[in-house]
Amino acid sequence: MTEYRWLLPSVLLGSGAERGPGRVRRSARDWFVDITLFVVTSLFTLIILSELEGDPPPLMMVEQVIGAVSCAGIWLRRRWPVGFALALVPVSWFSALVSGPTLVALFTVAVHRPFRHVALVGGLYVLCVLPYAVLRPDPELGVVGLMVLGVSLYLALVAWGMFIRARRQLVLSLRDRAERASEEAKRLERERIAREMHDVLAHRLSLLSVHAGALAFRRDMPREDVSRAAEAIRHSAHQALQDLRAVIGVLRHGDDGDAPQPPQPTLADLPGLVEESRKAGTPVRLALRLADPAAVPDALGRTAYRIAQEGLTNARKHAPGSPVRVEVDGAPGDGLTVVLRNPVRAPARQLAHVVPFGGDASGPAALPIPGSGTGLIGLAERVSLAGGRLEHGVSAADAPGAGEDEFRLRAWLPWPAAAAA
C-alpha cells in the first residue's frame, strides 16, 4: 500500500522523476514564454466571450469567473502541470472560456511529463469533447464535426509536445555524452602525464639515489671522486627539475595534441641514456641492431626509449651492480623489439615480485616490496596503447653453467612498412 500511496500525488501534482513539486526557477526565456501564453490565452478568452449568446446572466457570470481563473492558472503550469491540467477537466465539459488554457495545459503535460501522464490527461480531455459538443453544438459543424475537430486538435497538440520532449531529451543526451567524452579525454591525458612523470622522474631520482648512496657509504673516497659524484647529483637534480617543470607546464596550460610536449627523447637518445647508467655504476652493454636507426618514427622511438629507461631504473633498484644488456632489433614491417636482461642476485630475488619468463603467473612468487610493479604496469599500458606486447619475468641464463637466473624485459612494438618511406 505504501507504493500506491505516492502514486496519486505524483500524478496530480506532476512530481515525477524529472522535476519535483518545489519552487521552479524561471529563466528570461521562461518569463517571455509564460507572459506570451498568458496574453494570448486572455485575448482568446475575450474573443470567445464576445461571441457567446443566449446564456443566462448567472451562467455568464460563472463562465467569466472560470475563464479568468483558468487564464491566471497559466502561471502554475510549470510547477504543477498535471495538477493544473486535471483541474480544468470538470469545467471543460461545458465551459467555452477554458478552451485556451486547456490547450496550453495539455501541451505543457506533453512536453514536460512521461507518456503515462500524457495518456491520462489526454484521455480525459478527449472524453470531455462529447458532452461539450452536445451542450454547445456548433451550427456549422454539428456535434460530430465539433467532436472530430476537438479530438484532432488534442492529438495534434500531444504529438507536437511529445516531439519537442523527445528532441530536448536527445539534446541533453548528446550534451551528456559530450561531457563524458571530455572527462574521459581529460582522464586519459592525466594518465599519460602520470606515465611521463614516472618514467622520467623515477630514472632521474634513481641516479640521485645511487650517487648519494656512494657519498654516504664511501667516506674514504678521493676528493676527485667526491667532486664527480657531486657534479652528477647536481646534473641529475637539474634535469629532474627541468622535466618536472615541463610536465607541470602541460598540466597548467593544457595540451592540444595527443603527442607529448617537445622536446621528447627518441631512439637516437638511447646511447646517452646508457652512458648515464654507466656513470651511475651500472655496467650496460647496448646492442643496437638496426640498419638505419634514423628511419625509426619518433613516436615508436620514444616508446622504445621509455622501455629501456624503465628497465634500467628497475635494474638499479632491484639488482644494483648487476650488468645489464640492452638489445634493440627490428625492421619496417617486422616490428621493433626491445629486450633488457640482467642477472638476478640473491637480494633482488627476495625483493622482486616476478614470475618465470614465459611461465605460469599462478606459480609461487617472492614477497613483493612496497610499491613494486607500478612502473611495469604503466609500461604495459604504454606498450598496449602503441599496439605492442610486453613480457617480463625470470628465466634461466642463456649461457650454460652460468649459475644465475636472469630477469628479462621484452617488448615488441609494431613498425609499419609505410613508416619507413
UniProtKB/TrEMBL annotation:
GO MF term set: ATP binding; phosphorelay sensor kinase activity; protein dimerization activity
Annotated Signal transduction histidine kinase subgroup 3 dimerisation and phosphoacceptor domain residues: 189-255
UniProt-listed Pfam families: HisKA_3
Catalyzed chemical reaction(s): ATP + protein L-histidine = ADP + protein N-phospho-L-histidine
Transmembrane parts of this sequence: 31-50, 84-111, 118-135, 141-163
Keyword Ion transport part of the UniProt annotation: no
Top enzyme category: transferase
Enzyme Commission designation: 2.7.13.3
UniProt keywords, alphabetically: ATP-binding, Kinase, Membrane, Nucleotide-binding, Phosphoprotein, Transferase, Transmembrane, Transmembrane helix, Two-component regulatory system
Any GO CC annotation of this UniProt entry: membrane
Gene3D superfamilies xrefs: 1.20.5.1930, Histidine kinase-like ATPase, C-terminal domain
InterPro entries reported for this sequence: HATPase_C_sf, Sensor_HK_TwoCompSys, Sig_transdc_His_kin_sub3_dim/P
Protein name, entry field: histidine kinase
